[in-house]
Amino acid sequence: MTASLAWILPIGVAVGGFGLLIGSFLNVVVYRLPNGMSLSTPPSACPGCGSRIKAYDNVPVLSWLALQGKCRGCKKAISARYPLVELGTAAFFFIVGLRFVPRGLLLEPGHAIVAQLPVVLAFLYLAAISVALGLIDVDVHRLPNAIVLPSYVAGVVLFTAAAVLSGEWDSLIRGLIGLAVLWVAYAGMALAYPGGMGFGDVKLAGVLGLYLGWLGWGPLIVGAFAAFLLGGLFSLILLGTKRVGRKGGIPFGPWMLVGAWVGIFLGPSIWAGYLSFLGFN
Questions:
Q1: Are 255 and 203 in contact (CB under 8 A)?
Q2: 130-179 pLDDT, tens digit each
Q3: pTM reported for the whole predicted model
Q4: Whole-angstrom distance, CA of residue 133 vs CA of residue 151
Q5: Which helix (H) or strand (E) holds 32?
Q6: Residues 93, 107 contacting (CB under 8 angstroms)
């Protein structure tokens, strides 16, 4: 086994397996939160017959496959979205793990690696809320405060811990500036064009600005621009195919999230290429 595989496989099993469990919980969040239901009670039950779902029928992905996508009791179909969300979250966590988990974690644990762990947790947290917020916004055109507002606290606390452990105070300051800049920019757009931008988008923008700013000015700029580029192209396609009208209310939150992750993964290289094209490098 090569050194790269020796690093990737354990991280994939650990982080991806964790993602499966989180994906199962996100299915609950996406269904219950917009409906004003408790996330903990009552226990999960079949919407068709109301029978409580047993623990052995609630194993991520495997239970859905074993039951052939049907309730054990009434045989009502269970949406394929449930296992897809679980698998998608696992894959998302795996990719985030490859991006942020230090490669020396398994071989050379030390202070520098410990200092990176709050950053890993921060971006895994962002991945989880990205799945939940994206699906909820598509379903009901809302970005719930119950997810967005605590994300400010979680992000600031985790990045502050990372700065304390690593000394990267410039990254924290840049992240806080990114938070303020994107919040103000989106608030300005929401006030200038109330029908096109909601304050749910404004609040989410601050969270994304914090994460992108932590990584650098390039990711911040690329992530912010990519949201409008990708969202605009998608809207034009829907308008061109007449799937929506000009006032169809296309949710922008998912594109803010997709744009942010473009900035997170590709922002440094895109920004470096752009500066090189302009002759600054």
A1: no
A2: 999 999 999 999 999 999 999 999 999 999 999 999 999 999 999 999 99
A3: 0.92
A4: 12
A5: helix 3-32
A6: no
